[in-house]
Amino acid sequence: MSLAIATDGTTQRNWLEKLGAGHVILGVALVLYPLVASDFFLTQIGGYSLIFGMLGLSLMLLAGYGGMVSLAQITVAGISAYAIAILGNNNSNILGFGWPWWLAVPFAVLAAAVASALIGWISVRTEGIYTIMITLAIATATYYFAQQNYAIFNGHSGYAGIRAPAFWGIGWRDAKPFYYLCLGLAVLSYAAVLYGSRSTFGMTLQAIRDNPRRMRALGYHVTAHKVFAWLLSGVIAGLAGVLLVWFNGRVSPGTIGVDAAIDVLIIAVIGGLRHPIGPFLGALVVVLMQTFAIDIVGAERFNTLIGMVFLIIVFVSPDGILGLWGRIKPHLAQESLRPGP
After folding, report:
1. CA dist 227 → 138, 180, 255 (Å)
2. Spatial CA neighbour of 305 closest among 318, 281, 286
3. Is the dihedral of CA 128, 134, 137, 138 positive or negative?
4. How far apart are CA 244 and CA 81, in angstroms?
5. Domains and CATH numbers, the chain
6. What confidence category does residue 18 fall into, taking pLDDT thresholds of 50, 70 and 90?
7. Is 75 within 8 Å of 139 (Cβ atoms)?
8. Is the pLDDT at 329 greater than 80, yes or no?
């Protein structure tokens, strides 16, 4: 009996050490956040940051582990959002097949994943600035097509009156349920990317990023690995698109505009592309600035402020906030080890 108890205790300690104290503390704080936050801070700050953190995470998966910078992540999320509006219910009197959420959501995420894989299949044959330009061209073309097409996208008006489902006696657009829904999907996406980066596929993808010619010479199918990374990225962006359309209650070409595409890139770079937590940090910074700084500097100067913050962070730390913390942390550790007077 004592041996079993000791073994269980050792297993628990090993599990906690593997998970990391930082993850445990952050997880507890996020779970308890609704106890101290108002509905505004739960949805407009917490939920919105988690949604855009997932979008940034989908980009981080491609850029950080695959070396492929995409400006089409909001486009992929928009496809999922439009699919929810078309397959489910809306108040625009255009399409709206009335599918239940448990059927519409998987199809919407699948559509986003397939679209992402197609974008990847087109762009993986290029590198660097050419990949950025191709994905920007796809994002721009999709935006203008959605704006001018009324049969499917309902033109510039888009779709309105899209409601989050209610089941188990819970309205999932209410502040606390919606926050926990965003948190649950964000944690699942984060864990999947973190675990995937340490899997055989993740290590292979990073090796392809560093030296694709060598990996091709070793017999690896470089294009297939890259396209599959785009597919996985599309799943995360698709889930974010579902949450985004439930958050806003509508979707229009403005949702997938070029400005939104650049915002996702800024979020990922500000937070850092070296670790999956980076995009969530970047999303929190940008959402806080969008919520409060715009009232101080004015809407016409807000983009200038975002650009200045972006340039300062990149200049000080090319790896974003995470890179800045990586520089500060050793100095803090040295200070803590110094003997007192």
Report:
1. 16, 31, 25
2. 286
3. negative
4. 7
5. 39-272+279-319 (1.10.3470)
6. low
7. yes
8. no
